[in-house]
Structure formats: C-alpha cells, structure tokens
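chain and backbone:
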Amino acid sequence: MNREIKFRAWDDAEHEWVYVTLDELKSFEPTIHYWKLIHWSQYTGLKDKNGKEIYEGDVVKYFSGDNFIAVWNYKRNGWAFDDMGRTPEDFIVDSEFDWEQCEVIGNIYENPELLPS
C-alpha cells in the first residue's frame, strides 16, 4: 500500500493547524521555543464517510453513535480506534473498524469536550 505520509501540528500559541508532508518536514525549521508549543499528528491514510482525512488524535463518530479516537497502537503496530474505555481492550484495529461509516467530528486538541471526563 502506497500512501502519502503527511503530518499536522497543533500550534498551542496560535490555535491553528500547520500541515506538512514528509518532504516538507525535512526542511521545517521552527525555533526551539516553537517545538514546545506544538503537538504532532500523523495522517492515518484513512478517510471518513465524507472523504475527510483522519489524523491521529481525531475524534470520529461511528454510525452506532459512539465516539472513538484515532491512535497508533504500539502492541499491534498499526492504526487503531480507542473506544475511550468502553471495552476491556480499549482498541479496535482499523481492519476491524468500518471507518467508512464514521465521521470526523473534532480532535483532542480543539475539542476536549468530546473526551470522557
């Protein structure tokens, strides 16, 4: 599978996203202070039912009405969806998840209210 490797960075100071490809990242030279104010998210290679790209940290609403967070699962070495504690395993691997039936409704940086308290 060939997919474009892309990243986005949430800028805490400016409250905005900066999008970069892997090639652009090689020449990305922010100040040291700037590095402390950003949170990196990688593109998963997946798109929601509306064609919107799903990045790590995105909150998606599944057709069942449940919310999930796109995360990298180190145990399975692949993208997964965190069900935020609703099941003992907590993760659904992307091959088990019908991601074409979900919709990106926000992300963990701009929309913390979407996370369980």
About this structure: Helices lie at 22-26, 32-35. The chain has a mean pLDDT of 81. The first strand starts at residue 6 and ends at 11.
